[in-house]
Amino acid sequence: MKAILTIFIVLTSVVTFGQKLKFKIVGQADTTVHLVKYSGTKLFYADTAEIKGGYVEFDGAKQQPGMLGILLPGQQLFEFIYNKEEVHIETQKPNFVETMKVKKSEENRIFNDYVKFISERKTTAQKLATEINTLEKTDPKYKGLEDQINAINKEVIAYQHNLVKTYPNMLVGKMIKMTLEVEIPEPPVDAKGNIIDSNFRYHYYRDHYFDNTDFSVDGLVNTSVFGNKIEYFFGNKMLVQHWDTILKYAYRVIDQMDPKSKAFEYVVSYVTSSFGKSKQMGMDKVYVMMADKYYCTRNAEGKSPASWMTEDKLEELCEKITVQKNLVMGVKAPNIILPDTLDRPWDKLNWINLHKINAEYTILYFWDPECGHCKKITPKLAELYDKKFKGRNIEVLAIGKASGDDYKKWKDYIVKNKLNFLNVAVTETILKIGKEDARMLIPRFTTLESMNIHLTYDIFSTPRLFVLDKDKKFIAKQISISQLEDMMDRLQNKTDLPKLFPPDKEEDEQMTK
Length: 513
Hints:
five-stranded mixed β-sheet; four-stranded mixed β-sheet; elongated
């Protein structure tokens, strides 16, 4: 056993020793240089070393497979492939690619030849393109130049396909394969030769976009090619930027990956984070549902798919998601059963039930009589309701802050500003009774969710506004009064009506916070 262990240690040492990254850069003065790595499209520092006499060395054993780069002063960068092998490269400033010689590393020998080939063909094609742009299509030279450009394109494609075929299991081969365009077949036609689906090419391209991407190879994730493909796919040039569309294709792409792979981690993190930052109304659904499915779901062993997250972070995230997933677009709003403004004994209060409000559209409005921004928004909503919404089967349910001293302020504000829509609140009376014995109210009159309405609706600042359809499903949230007016007019085909409130950029921005 001791001998076996000794051999294992020796072999491990040899492997580690054999992963040196050595570079000779002719013309580079002694200085500090950085080894940089990709995570998607972004570059990060991976290591630092001193270059002396043109020589610099890094320990490759510390790095993960993928595309790495040497970053020199003045933001000068040249890239190379690392795939757990020793790398020796010589080059010369300032033309790193043209002068590069790969002394050791089969991956980089192939990659360097490829880059040089592409660079040469690109230069030739650009010269031809510049010349052809000066000519009319009727010019005798035009067709010849066009044929030359097409020939170069075919040559490049043939080179790429041959490289991929020759080196199918090498990282460089898989990386180049990832850049290959999807070959789209001719669209199907009917008996008369007419194209059946005019969008066939788009649908095929979208559905086969990742055919040339091997999600099981972790090294591909650490290349800008992978990051660019993911960004393009989820961007507006490929997918309609609607939350349900994004989720549909996110699930389709991610669910074919091994949850232990780097591709899974990267794509889950990218989609969740990028759409979580979106300012587009409703895109929070992507963030919430991605988090619920890929972070908060647990397997039989109680493990989250998001193995890169600490348990503390997961618990913090999932506590919020539990609430937020009930507030996303297309979901039926949690019911609200609260008393209106009439002063009556607690057992004879007039309770308003959100789910029983018979309206084509219902606007939920959370406000505070002492809130500065609410004082600007609430009178506008009251005017909009009185002058345009009241007779159009649009109802407003306003949930105010009315506990303690706020009860009188709430009622006074309603009277003073003539808030003629439905006004409800968790008043001090029912709050006190609920604390003494919640069974006196629940479930006879109300619900626990209604008594904890600000937690149920994730209300930590006011004003907050939601729009519900006839089935009480969310169709809009956090829009300004002018946006609300415009939306309701469009939904009910009343666009010819004059607008009470013109667009207000400051209010729009305030409501989306």
